[in-house]
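Sequence decides. Our protein:
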Amino acid sequence: MKLILGSSSPRRKELLEQIGCVPHDIRSPDINEDPTKGELPRPYCQRMAREKLAAIARNHEEIVLSADTTVALGRRILGKPADEKEAAEFLLALGGRRHKVITAVAVGYQDKTWEFDVVSTVKFKRLNDIELNAYLASHEWRGKAGGYAIHGRAGAFIPWIQGSFSAIKGLPVAETAKILQAAGYPIYGDHS
C-alpha cells in the first residue's frame, strides 16, 4: 500500500511525517475551489476535500489522502486572499473576534472512502496599524485561508484556541492516524 498525499501543502506533508507517514508521492489536484452561492463553510470544506480526492487518479495499491482547511467568520468563508488589500480586510474582520477553522479530510483506498472534519475555534487579537502593516509586508498571508498561518508570525496574534492545533495548521494528526489505520494503512508498521 502506497500513501499518496493529494495536496502540495508542505504543512500537511510535515504533519503526516510527524506520525511516521512519508508520502510515496504528492499529487496536487486541480479543481475549482469557489464556494457555490449560499454555501456554508462546513459543507463547503467537506465538499472540497471530497472533490480533491476525486480529482486524483489512483491505482489499487494507492491510498490517497486529501484535505481542505477553511476559515469561517460566522457564515462567511474567508478563503485565500487574492491580494494584500483583501488580506488586510480579512485580518481586520478577524480582529478581536472568535472564528472557526474547519479542516476536512477525505481518504480513498480501492473502492472505499473515509471522511471526517474537525472544527476548532480561534480567538484573533485586534491588530494595530504597525502589526497589520508588518504582517502584510511579510507576505506570509499569501496562499493562506483567512490570510494567516497559526504556525507563523500570526501565532503572536492568537491568544487562545479551542480544538486541534494541527487541524488549524492543516491536518488533524490524531484523527488522521485513526482514519488511515481504519483504511488499513500501517501507521506504525512497514511502509515499503
Summary: The beta strands are 2-5, 25-26, 62-73, 76-78, 97-109, 112-124, 160-162.
